[in-house]
User: What shape does this take?
Amino acid sequence: MDRPDADRKILSDDLGNLRTINRYFGGLSALRKAVIPLALKKKPEDSLSILDLATGSGDQPRSLYDELHRLGRRVHITAVDKNEIMLEEARKLSAGKRDIVFKQGDVLNLQIGERSFDIVTCSLALHHFSRENGIKLLREMDRICRIGFVVNDLARSVVGVAAAWIYSRLSTRNPMTRYDSVISVRRAFTQNELISMSHEAGVIPVRIYTAPLFRLIAVKEK
Assistant: This one.
């Protein structure tokens, strides 16, 4: 799904499958549970700014937007992704939400000033990077945020790989979903690996914990 020459129809269907997984298998709820306490540190009358990195089809920032509005909070979200096809899907999903802005950009080469956003989030992208680039991403998220950042990713495990293989074979014939769901868990970091990466990035203290259904969460609060 990271390839710029990916088949548009297959990728669009794959993104739909991923949104279903996020909705029903803990991705969206894990992100909301991590972000909302950080968001509530802001005064109710003040607008909150969020930067979402590697946004994909934008279901994660859309979920945050809806939840924060339900809580009576004003929020502006900037969502960045390198893939223009994904951004087209994201704009469709959040059509009419003028406080969610989608921009094309490389999350490893962000031209964004220090402490430019209240909260920085990154969901289901860390496992796409090497350890070195993952450390760089953590460091950049810490540099850009004022209140804190949240990484919402997969946790590598044998059971997780098996579960991804079984679910993808039972739920879809999409070859991209079948391949990526398994390889993503295989490439994901473990809790101890992410702890080590956060130390090397110099972003400690950071709270790193696992969530149900093979999720790995990192929360840095300033």
